[in-house]
Amino acid sequence: MPPEPRFLPPLLAITLDGTGVPAAEQAERLCAAGVRWVQLRMKRAEPGEWRRQARAAVAACHRHGALLCVNDSVDVALEAGADGVHLGREDGDWAAARARLGPRALLGGTVNHADDAARAAAADLDYVGIGPWRFTPTKQNLSPVLGPDGIRALLPRLGGKPAWVIGGVQAADLPAIRALGAAGAAVAAGLQGGGRWADQVQAYLSAWSAAPVLSP
Questions:
Q1: Is residue 158 part of a domain?
Q2: Beta-strand relationship, 84-87 and 67-71
Q3: What confidence score (pLDDT) does residue 137 get?
Protein backbone atom coordinates (compact mmCIF):
# COMPACT_ATOMS: atom_id res chain seq x y z
CA MET A 1 0.00 0.00 0.00
CA PRO A 2 1.24 3.53 -0.75
CA PRO A 3 1.81 5.94 2.11
CA GLU A 4 -0.65 8.63 3.13
CA PRO A 5 -0.99 10.77 -0.03
CA ARG A 6 -0.49 14.09 1.72
CA PHE A 7 2.96 13.10 2.98
CA LEU A 8 5.32 14.28 0.27
CA PRO A 9 8.99 13.30 0.53
CA PRO A 10 11.60 15.98 -0.20
CA LEU A 11 13.11 14.06 -3.12
CA LEU A 12 10.89 13.67 -6.19
CA ALA A 13 12.48 11.40 -8.81
CA ILE A 14 11.51 11.86 -12.45
CA THR A 15 11.86 9.12 -15.05
CA LEU A 16 13.88 9.79 -18.20
CA ASP A 17 13.25 9.11 -21.88
CA GLY A 18 15.94 7.64 -24.08
CA THR A 19 17.99 5.79 -21.47
CA GLY A 20 17.34 2.27 -22.73
CA VAL A 21 15.78 1.42 -19.36
CA PRO A 22 11.95 1.21 -19.44
CA ALA A 23 10.21 3.79 -17.26
CA ALA A 24 8.67 1.18 -14.97
CA GLU A 25 12.08 -0.40 -14.42
CA GLN A 26 13.48 3.04 -13.66
CA ALA A 27 10.76 3.45 -11.03
CA GLU A 28 11.64 0.06 -9.54
CA ARG A 29 15.37 0.87 -9.37
CA LEU A 30 14.79 4.31 -7.92
CA CYS A 31 12.48 2.97 -5.23
CA ALA A 32 14.88 0.14 -4.40
CA ALA A 33 17.54 2.82 -3.92
CA GLY A 34 15.40 4.72 -1.41
CA VAL A 35 13.16 7.06 -3.44
CA ARG A 36 9.61 7.34 -2.10
CA TRP A 37 8.03 9.58 -4.73
CA VAL A 38 8.32 9.12 -8.49
CA GLN A 39 6.96 11.17 -11.37
CA LEU A 40 6.43 9.16 -14.56
CA ARG A 41 7.43 11.42 -17.45
CA MET A 42 7.22 9.80 -20.90
CA LYS A 43 7.13 12.61 -23.45
CA ARG A 44 8.03 10.43 -26.44
CA ALA A 45 5.95 7.33 -25.68
CA GLU A 46 3.25 5.82 -27.85
CA PRO A 47 -0.07 5.94 -25.91
CA GLY A 48 -0.41 2.18 -25.40
CA GLU A 49 3.16 1.85 -24.14
CA TRP A 50 2.65 4.86 -21.87
CA ARG A 51 -0.31 3.16 -20.25
CA ARG A 52 1.49 -0.17 -19.90
CA GLN A 53 4.50 1.46 -18.30
CA ALA A 54 2.28 3.54 -16.02
CA ARG A 55 0.50 0.48 -14.64
CA ALA A 56 3.78 -1.32 -14.06
CA ALA A 57 5.39 1.75 -12.48
CA VAL A 58 2.46 2.22 -10.10
CA ALA A 59 2.77 -1.42 -9.02
CA ALA A 60 6.53 -1.05 -8.52
CA CYS A 61 6.18 2.09 -6.44
CA HIS A 62 3.41 0.68 -4.29
CA ARG A 63 5.44 -2.44 -3.55
CA HIS A 64 8.02 -0.12 -2.01
CA GLY A 65 5.47 2.05 -0.20
CA ALA A 66 6.19 4.91 -2.60
CA LEU A 67 3.96 7.38 -4.44
CA LEU A 68 3.70 7.68 -8.20
CA CYS A 69 2.39 10.69 -10.12
CA VAL A 70 1.90 10.73 -13.87
CA ASN A 71 3.16 13.73 -15.79
CA ASP A 72 0.82 15.36 -18.34
CA SER A 73 -2.22 13.06 -18.34
CA VAL A 74 -5.18 12.71 -16.00
CA ASP A 75 -6.49 9.88 -18.19
CA VAL A 76 -3.33 7.79 -17.84
CA ALA A 77 -3.14 8.45 -14.11
CA LEU A 78 -6.72 7.32 -13.52
CA GLU A 79 -6.37 4.23 -15.72
CA ALA A 80 -3.13 3.20 -14.02
CA GLY A 81 -4.32 3.78 -10.45
CA ALA A 82 -1.62 6.39 -9.85
CA ASP A 83 -1.52 8.53 -6.74
CA GLY A 84 -1.80 11.73 -8.70
CA VAL A 85 -0.90 13.90 -11.66
CA HIS A 86 1.54 16.68 -12.44
CA LEU A 87 0.41 19.17 -15.08
CA GLY A 88 2.67 21.68 -16.74
CA ARG A 89 1.63 25.10 -17.95
CA GLU A 90 0.15 23.69 -21.18
CA ASP A 91 -1.02 20.26 -20.00
CA GLY A 92 -4.58 21.05 -18.99
CA ASP A 93 -6.70 23.04 -16.57
CA TRP A 94 -5.94 22.48 -12.89
CA ALA A 95 -9.55 22.93 -11.76
CA ALA A 96 -10.83 20.42 -14.32
CA ALA A 97 -8.13 17.96 -13.30
CA ARG A 98 -9.07 18.26 -9.63
CA ALA A 99 -12.73 17.66 -10.46
CA ARG A 100 -11.83 14.43 -12.24
CA LEU A 101 -9.24 13.22 -9.73
CA GLY A 102 -11.23 13.88 -6.58
CA PRO A 103 -10.00 15.42 -3.33
CA ARG A 104 -7.51 12.77 -2.21
CA ALA A 105 -5.36 12.42 -5.32
CA LEU A 106 -2.21 14.48 -5.58
CA LEU A 107 -2.28 17.34 -8.05
CA GLY A 108 0.85 19.32 -8.86
CA GLY A 109 1.47 22.17 -11.25
CA THR A 110 4.48 23.83 -12.83
CA VAL A 111 5.45 27.39 -11.94
CA ASN A 112 7.95 29.27 -14.12
CA HIS A 113 6.70 32.86 -13.93
CA ALA A 114 4.85 35.29 -11.66
CA ASP A 115 1.55 34.65 -13.46
CA ASP A 116 1.98 30.90 -12.88
CA ALA A 117 2.56 31.57 -9.18
CA ALA A 118 -0.63 33.63 -8.95
CA ARG A 119 -2.64 30.87 -10.62
CA ALA A 120 -1.09 28.25 -8.35
CA ALA A 121 -1.89 30.26 -5.24
CA ALA A 122 -5.57 30.33 -6.22
CA ALA A 123 -5.75 26.68 -7.36
CA ASP A 124 -6.48 23.47 -5.46
CA LEU A 125 -2.96 22.13 -5.86
CA ASP A 126 -1.09 19.98 -3.36
CA TYR A 127 2.34 21.16 -4.50
CA VAL A 128 4.16 22.99 -7.25
CA GLY A 129 7.30 22.30 -9.22
CA ILE A 130 9.22 25.55 -9.54
CA GLY A 131 12.16 26.31 -11.80
CA PRO A 132 14.32 25.89 -13.74
CA TRP A 133 17.08 26.12 -11.16
CA ARG A 134 19.66 25.95 -13.95
CA PHE A 135 19.85 24.77 -17.56
CA THR A 136 19.02 21.11 -18.08
CA PRO A 137 19.10 19.12 -21.35
CA THR A 138 16.42 16.70 -20.08
CA LYS A 139 13.63 19.27 -20.61
CA GLN A 140 12.58 20.35 -24.09
CA ASN A 141 11.38 23.93 -24.56
CA LEU A 142 12.99 24.91 -21.28
CA SER A 143 11.61 28.07 -19.69
CA PRO A 144 14.05 30.87 -18.82
CA VAL A 145 16.32 29.83 -15.96
CA LEU A 146 15.20 31.31 -12.64
CA GLY A 147 18.16 30.45 -10.46
CA PRO A 148 18.12 31.05 -6.71
CA ASP A 149 17.06 34.70 -6.97
CA GLY A 150 14.13 34.01 -9.27
CA ILE A 151 12.90 31.14 -7.13
CA ARG A 152 13.30 33.21 -3.96
CA ALA A 153 11.06 35.88 -5.52
CA LEU A 154 8.32 33.43 -6.53
CA LEU A 155 8.07 31.28 -3.40
CA PRO A 156 6.15 33.89 -1.33
CA ARG A 157 3.61 34.22 -4.14
CA LEU A 158 2.45 30.59 -3.95
CA GLY A 159 -0.09 31.08 -1.20
CA GLY A 160 1.73 28.74 1.15
CA LYS A 161 1.80 25.79 -1.24
CA PRO A 162 4.91 23.61 -0.89
CA ALA A 163 7.38 23.84 -3.76
CA TRP A 164 9.85 21.37 -5.24
CA VAL A 165 12.68 23.02 -7.16
CA ILE A 166 13.37 21.50 -10.56
CA GLY A 167 15.85 21.93 -13.37
CA GLY A 168 19.42 20.64 -13.22
CA VAL A 169 19.44 20.30 -9.44
CA GLN A 170 22.58 18.67 -8.05
CA ALA A 171 23.02 17.20 -4.59
CA ALA A 172 25.33 20.06 -3.64
CA ASP A 173 22.50 22.52 -4.36
CA LEU A 174 20.17 21.14 -1.71
CA PRO A 175 21.39 23.22 1.26
CA ALA A 176 20.74 26.40 -0.72
CA ILE A 177 17.38 25.12 -1.95
CA ARG A 178 16.29 24.19 1.56
CA ALA A 179 17.49 27.55 2.87
CA LEU A 180 15.18 29.28 0.39
CA GLY A 181 12.21 27.57 2.04
CA ALA A 182 11.47 25.01 -0.66
CA ALA A 183 9.95 21.70 0.41
CA GLY A 184 12.26 19.63 -1.74
CA ALA A 185 13.73 19.08 -5.17
CA ALA A 186 12.65 17.19 -8.28
CA VAL A 187 15.51 15.40 -10.01
CA ALA A 188 15.81 13.36 -13.20
CA ALA A 189 19.29 12.84 -14.70
CA GLY A 190 21.11 13.47 -11.43
CA LEU A 191 19.75 10.26 -9.94
CA GLN A 192 20.83 8.01 -12.79
CA GLY A 193 24.30 9.37 -13.52
CA GLY A 194 26.78 6.67 -14.45
CA GLY A 195 24.28 3.97 -13.55
CA ARG A 196 25.10 4.40 -9.86
CA TRP A 197 21.47 4.65 -8.84
CA ALA A 198 21.83 3.82 -5.13
CA ASP A 199 24.85 6.07 -4.65
CA GLN A 200 23.19 8.99 -6.39
CA VAL A 201 19.89 8.66 -4.52
CA GLN A 202 21.66 8.44 -1.19
CA ALA A 203 23.78 11.49 -2.04
CA TYR A 204 20.65 13.57 -2.56
CA LEU A 205 18.85 12.21 0.49
CA SER A 206 21.89 12.77 2.68
CA ALA A 207 22.43 16.29 1.37
CA TRP A 208 18.84 17.23 2.14
CA SER A 209 18.94 15.70 5.62
CA ALA A 210 22.19 17.49 6.43
CA ALA A 211 21.00 20.88 5.20
CA PRO A 212 20.15 23.27 8.04
CA VAL A 213 16.54 24.36 8.39
CA LEU A 214 16.58 28.12 8.82
CA SER A 215 14.06 29.88 11.03
CA PRO A 216 11.75 32.27 9.18
A1: yes
A2: parallel
A3: 67
For 135: left if phi > 0, alpha if psi spans -120 to 50, otherwise beta; the answer is beta
Instruction: List, for residues 44-74, the tens digit of each pLDDT value.
Output: 889 999 999 999 999 999 999 999 999 999 9
Supply φ then ψ for residue 67, to 5 degrees: -90, 150
Stretches where the chain sits below pLDDT 70 are 1-6, 137-143, 213-216
Q: Residue 61 falls within a domain, yes or no?
A: yes
The pTM (predicted TM-score) of the whole model is: 0.92
Of 186, 176, 181, 180, residue with least CA distance to 207: 176
Q: Name residues whose C-beta falls within 8 Å of residue 171's C-beta, 6 or more positions apart in sequence.
A: 190, 200, 203, 204, 206, 207
Nearest to 198 by CA among 68, 32, 72: 32
Helix, strand, coil percentages in the chain from 3-state DSSP, rounded to 5? 45, 15, 40
* Within a domain: 114: yes
Residue 186 sits in which domain range? 11-209
Distance CA 50, CA 188 (A): 18
Q: What type of residue sits at position 103?
A: P
CB neighbourhood size of 155 (10 A): 21
Total domains in the fold of the chain: 1
Instruction: Indicate which CATH number applies to the domain containing 152.
Output: 3.20.20.70
Helix (H, G, I), strand (E, B) or coil at 147: helix
